[in-house]
TrEMBL record:
One cellular component (GO) term of this entry: membrane
Keyword Ribonucleoprotein assigned: no
Name of the protein this chain belongs to: Ig-like domain-containing protein
Signal peptide bounds: 1-28
Subcellular location: Membrane
Recorded topology in the membrane: Single-pass type I membrane protein
Domain of life the protein comes from: Eukaryota
Keywords: Disulfide bond, Immunoglobulin domain, Membrane, Repeat, Signal, Transmembrane, Transmembrane helix
SUPFAM superfamilies per UniProt: Immunoglobulin (SSF48726)
Ig-like domain boundaries: 143-275, 288-407, 409-531
One Pfam family of this chain: V-set
Length: 620
């Protein structure tokens, strides 16, 4: 071992032995540290790896070497002091500056590899050269470098171009996925490369921690709800702009970036890719003559099915109308649906839909008004128009109608939706107390929840529900301290389990399955609901069998189970001197046939003076 180190550093044996002895006595003074590993980096991308040295004396600038250790060999990569240090496999890349060392300070450097290759994988060794004197500490450090394949994919499958008018809505989607075996996070950004932009501008980013950040210049529209970005299911990233502007004209594309967290807890970008672009043309709306205004109506693009969301937008284009006010009314087949008056008061003409929060109308900007039907019905189809009155305010605060404009009609078609949603529920008729109570529910395309009621006169209360993504949420208040679990199989079978059941868990259980659908605005809406219910009995512990050690004719036992405790009453129909004495109640507690506790009550003295009937209550 001594000979190896002496040969490695090309030192005389005596000096080497002296240095090693002093190093052993003063171990740890010099310390080389390469970036914590193992590191995972993607083939074809640039990487940087840090290395530094501490605890040294002498010149403030240290020299470094990087060596790649393979099985049974060491390959020199690059050195700060020797330009001929690299072996042939790396010499061409170092001469072309594809591999180089960036000095951060006299004692700290970065190794850069511009284009990582598969053969770069191995144990990466960082060495600092000895500058004279005795050897103190560790002069090298190594970490594992793994080179993995690039599996990041991003695609845009929509139309390559769109033609819109000012105020129209724009919705774009891109699909992003990665198949790497390592745990990585994805960041997705929508960009706009306008006609006058030197570089593309980020519109909105869904960061690796799933937070949305608007790009520079788009912050105000993001806060006003006029720009949004959502992750839909696992791979789809949706950009929505309800009201496009002339400045939005240009090419839209999506960029995906893959990040990995290194052992030092820092995040590093390891891969990126961009999608094809969608060229968006935005036509300018010609302003009306001075003193007049015009009205435009735009409805959600079809086809629409029952349960989909419907947006009907009214835009008022006016100029040179000082002190003007507008009242806006939505019409369907010439019948009033909703109205926003000049003072901003909202009137919905279908109170049932308004109370059910299925329909709303808002003023989204100075001259834009939006009617939304959150869950459409077939009767919502027909011809829609906007009727707009220009009004002036009188001195007494009332409004006077001046002139009216009606938009061109737009036909909305809604088709009925058939559902093949089914629910099948299964469970045992009875289960012993303290055993797990399981309720099985088989469904597909759905959101699932369970309810329970104690008896026929009670109402159902929530036990637990699953989101349409299969995530457990909303545990009922009565069950938050209980061991409640749900299991989901790929075949669409759901199981509710109540661990350590109690007699109060007896009763009927209902499985409720709701079918949900993604709407055109990205929100999830309930389409259909099915349910099934079934009864179960939880038997009291331990076996329910009754055994007598005294003459049963002289005693009777009554048991009353309550939600929080159980009353056992021992009755003596014909008391006599023979029943005189001290009585106790002993309770043995079992869980799944295993005795968990044994408790004995206080002593109760009974004296029989006359013939009669007495009863004694033992409560535990």
């Amino acid at each position: 071992m001594v000979d190896f180190w002496c040969q490695k550093w090309n030192l005389p044996l005596l000096l080497c032995l002296t240095g090693l002895l002093q190093w052993d006595l003063c171990s740890g003074q010099i310390q080389v540290q390469i970036q914590l590993g193992p590191l995972y980096r993607v083939k074809g991308y640039p990487i940087s790896i840090s290395c530094n040295v501490t605890g040294f004396t002498g010149p403030p600038t240290r020299d470094f070497q990087f060596i790649l250790k393979k099985p049974n060999m060491e390959l020199n990569i690059i050195s700060t002091s020797d330009p001929e240090f690299a072996y042939g496999v790396f010499s061409g890349r170092t001469r072309n500056k594809e591999i180089y060392i960036q000095r951060l300070s006299g004692s700290s450097v970065l190794l850069w590899i511009k284009n990582l290759q598969e053969n770069d994988a191995g144990d990466l060794l960082c060495v600092t050269l000895h500058t004279g004197g005795a050897y103190y500490g560790d002069y090298d450090d190594e970490k594992k470098l793994n080179v993995i394949a690039d599996t990041l994919e991003a695609s845009y499958s929509g139309s390559p171009s769109q033609s819109l008018s000012e105020g129209d809505p724009l919705q774009l989607e891109c699909q992003v996925s990665s198949q790497t075996f390592q745990h990585t996070h994805l960041m997705v950004t929508w960009f706009l490369h306008g006609e006058e932009d030197e570089n593309p501008r980020p519109i909105s980013t869904l960061d690796r921690d799933l937070t949305v950040k608007p790009g520079a210049g788009f912050e105000d529209r993001y806060r006003a709800g006029l720009i949004s970005m959502d992750k839909v299911e696992d791979t789809t990233y949706r950009l929505k702009m309800p009201l496009v502007q002339q400045s939005d004209q240009g090419k839209f594309f999506c960029k995906a970036t893959e990040w990995i967290q290194d052992p030092d807890r820092s995040w590093t970008q390891i891969a990126h890719t961009t999608t094809a672009a969608c060229a968006v043309e935005i036509k300018r709306i010609v302003a009306p003559d001075a003193g007049s205004f015009s009205v435009y109506l735009k409805a959600s693009k079809g086809p629409l099915q029952e349960g989909d969301a419907l947006d009907i937008r009214c835009s008022v284009n006016a100029q040179n109308l000082p002190g003007h006010f507008f009242s806006v009314t939505w019409l369907k087949n010439q019948q009033k649906v909703a109205q926003i008056g000049s003072s901003g008061v909202l009137t919905m003409f279908d109170k049932e839909r308004e109370n059910a929060a299925e329909m709303r109308a808002v003023k989204t900007s100075h001259m834009d008004y939006l009617l939304t039907i959150r869950s459409t019905r077939t009767e919502d189809q027909g011809q829609y128009q906007c009727e707009v009155w220009q009004e002036n305010m009188n001195e007494d605060g009332t409004f006077k109608k001046i002139q009216k404009q009606i938009s061109s009609p737009e036909t909305v078609s809604i088709t009925a939706k058939e559902s093949d949603l089914e629910v099948v529920m299964a469970m045992k008729d009875a289960v012993t107390e303290e055993h797990a109570l399981q309720v099985f529910c088989s469904v597909s395309g759905f959101k699932v929840s369970w309810q329970h009621k104690k008896d026929s006169g009670a109402s159902f209360s929530d036990v637990i529900s699953l989101t349409y993504e299969g995530v457990m949420k909303d545990v009922g208040s009565r069950y938050q301290s209980r061991n409640v679990q749900t299991f989901h199989s790929p075949a669409g079978n759901f199981t509710l389990e109540l661990g350590a059941s109690a007699t109060s868990d007896s009763g009927e259980y209902k499985c409720i399955v709701s079918e949900w659908k993604v709407q055109s605005n990205g929100e999830m809406k309930k389409a259909n609901t099915h349910s099934q219910q079934k009864a179960i009995i939880v038997k009291s512990y331990h076996t329910g069998e009754m055994a007598w050690r005294a003459d049963q004719r002289n005693y009777q036992l009554s048991i009353q189970a309550q939600p929080t405790d159980t009353h056992f009453t021992l009755m003596v129909p014909r008391a006599s001197k023979q029943q005189e004495g001290q009585y106790q109640c002993q309770v043995d507690a079992y869980q799944k046939d295993e005795q968990k506790a044994n408790i004995i009550s206080n002593l109760l003295a009974v004296i029989v003076q006359k013939t009669g009937k007495y009863s004694y209550l033992f409560k535990k």
